[in-house]
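Summary for the funding panel

The consortium committed to producing paired sequence-structure records for every protein in the target list. Below we show the first two records in order, beginning with the earlier of the two.
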Amino acid sequence: MKKILVVEDEENISKLICDTLNLGGYGYDMAFDGKIAVNKVLNEDYDLILLDIMLPELDGFEVMEKIKSKNIPIIFLSAKNDVSSIVKGLKDGGQDYITKPFEPLELLARIELRIGKNNIETYKYKDIIVNTKERLVYKNNNQIALSPKEYDLLVLLLKNVGVALSRDIILNEIWNIDEDIETRTVDYHIGQLRTKLDLKDEIKAISKIGYRIEKE
């Protein structure tokens, strides 16, 4: 598993980034100030660094200067959106620069461009964790028994958080049925997921289309 260092001093933003990395199947460490970040980079191995600029102890530009010898790809992730900061970050060696607030899917796409796509082994949504390697689902650390089709449907929804999926698409993806038939099968399995995982408010019915699992 590829490992990313998240250097961010705001706890809520750091948690959002880490939740996004979990969704993408990446491993990660966290550092909440520049000195800790430098120490981690010099003593451990990382595939990528997500680096804030406004940090305690050492700012992001100072951190980058001290770790240049490690030659690790860096993506700046900062609220500083002025042209001079962006240009400095890129000219000093950053591979990319994303301004806050950011979209989680955009962040994953930028990461993929720099270090390649990771094989997703774990999906995390609220208090639900899906281990795709073992095909196991947990809620509040308790294993939940799903049928094979219920499991496949859950993974499809989690791969498309915030996206409305038509019943035809779901039938094709899960049951390999192209025709608009047996749509009640989809409704039944959605009902099972809502009940078993307490997702009644999260899995929304989209009138005349299908279903969408809401963003967290």
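The next record, for a separate protein in the list, is shown here:
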Amino acid sequence: MPKLIKNGQLVDDNAQVLILDETQAPEELSLPEGPVFVPFAVWQAHKGQLSGRPGLGVWLDSHEDVAELAEDLGEISGVALNFPKFTDGRSYSAAALLRTRYGFKGEIRAIGDVLRDQFFFMQRCGFDTIQPKAGKYSDAQLEAALASLQDFSTPYQAAVDQPAPLFRRAQRAA
């Protein structure tokens, strides 16, 4: 079973991320049992049947707008945001919007081409689960990446995980 980083721990991934190929239509799809992240198109096609299903999440590609999912956030347990390539940073903004503007408290998962160098910044933007591509990292490499998330004791900048910048949090003698 593949591993991922979730809430600061290395855990087994029991959720499936459903990916459609060119021949599959969202309307005709049958879903597997258990926790699953479905593409946004599948959610739109089956919203009535899927609403409130335990363990159901929706994944958005980087070009899809989280605002289109905003009204449905109470019906799903998680949102996965795809990084089609490591240079595409639109999913950072989407995660921040989900946490700040839409107040989403569920799981936000980074999927796709996520690299170890990005893990810290993903957490700062609101991601609580980081799922690298299968086979990209060994368990030992993920353990080392998890330990490296503690390299920075106090971030200077404001972000989703710490809304006040350091100069606002620092106590200084008068």
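Regarding this second record: The chain has a mean pLDDT of 89. The beta strands are 3-6, 9-12, 16-17, 36-39, 56-60, 78-83, 107-112, 129-130.
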